[in-house]
Amino acid sequence: MDMWLKEGQIENAAMTYKIKETLVRKKTEYQDLAIVDTYSFGRMLLLDGIVQTTIKDEYVYHEMIAHIPLFTHPNPKKVLVVGGGDGGAIREVLKHPSVEKAVLCEIDKEVINECKRFLPEISCALDDARCEIFVGDGIKYVHEHKNEFDVIIVDSTDPFGAAEGLFGGSFYKEIYDCLTEDGIFIAQTETPFYLPEVVKRVYNDANAVFPITKLFMAGIPTYPSGFWSFTVGSKKHDPETVDLSNSIDIDTKYYTKKLHKACFVLPKFVEDLTK
Ligand code: SAM
Fold first, then answer.
1. pTM of the prediction?
2. Which residues of 119-155 are buried (b: 16+ CB within 10 A; e: fewer)?
3. Binding residue per annotation — 31?
4. I want to staple 218 with a disulfide (CB 3.0 to 4.6 A). Which of 2, 64, 95, 138 is the partner?
5. pLDDT digit string (tens) for 166-186?
6. pLDDT digits (tens, 9 = 90+) for 11-67
7. Which of 157, 174, 230 to mutate for ligand 1's pocket (most ligand atoms within 8 Å of CB)?
8. Is 205 annotated among the ligand-binding residues?
9. For the CA of 138, the nearest atom of ligand 1
10. How confident is the model over 231-252, as a mean pLDDT?
11. Which domains are delineated in the chain?
12. Nearest protein Cα to ligand 1, atom 18
């Protein structure tokens, strides 16, 4: 008998995946967690029925959310990842030798535990000596730390439930205060194809707080529409015009120095959301 998973992030449209087996399924304190093995994307983490990451396409999201801000900052030493319990963003952050400490602030310890168990390719750097894991609410953590991080990565679930407060002006002001004087923040900011109003609102909220705000896109096959946006807020360094000629080479599959510049060139309907 064939088993198919229907992902339901977007109303009235859905992606389906043929499943080999369910590796774990449990209700945590915060969400319904499942890791399933699929024929087309390998093992896949779902939270509340929404695909978070898969073995086959995870590199696009994790490389872009980490390397755009880390190659923009001239000397990133201390990095905070809010959410991101699968560990993929931390794995990419720790490819930068300048990073002395990377803090992961994830609200749901079960995400960390199950990703360590079933997605070792993604979670492999969570045991690195430079990684510190804090289980708790990112909103509270950011509020309690001032002027501390060179880069903050908001690798969150969609703007509902525990992650709702991670999108919006008051959180971006707290992030601004948590960053050092030339700090940079980045967040995954949803699909401009299905949720243009969310992308526009988040961009405007970040733009009201940061002197430099830029939106870029990456192609992520398992996210609705494949068109995915990220928003960068920076106090000093512009991610689009930064000089990358002397930046180090690291091992990547999606990110390149050329793409770092090119990803800020937006399709018209997305560019319009930033006006
Ligand atoms: N790449 C993913 C995506 O866009 O689909 C996000 C993956 S990551 C697993 C998202 C994580 O954010 C989840 O594990 C969730 O528990 C965590 N999270 C949600 N709200 C949070 C909060 N307020 N503080 C810290 N972590 C939070």
1. 0.97
2. beebbebbeeeebebeeebbbebbeebeebbbbbbbb
3. yes
4. 64
5. 888 899 999 999 999 999 999
6. 889 999 999 999 999 999 999 999 999 999 999 999 999 999 999 999 999 999 999
7. 157
8. no
9. 24
10. 97
11. 3-54 (2.30.140.10), 58-274 (3.40.50.150)
12. 83
pLDDT in tens, 245-262: 999 999 999 999 999 999
Rounded Cα gap, residues 35 and 45, in angstroms: 5
- Catalytic positions: 155
Atom from ligand 1 closest to the CA of residue 163:
20
Which residue has its alpha carbon closest to ligand 1 atom 14? 85
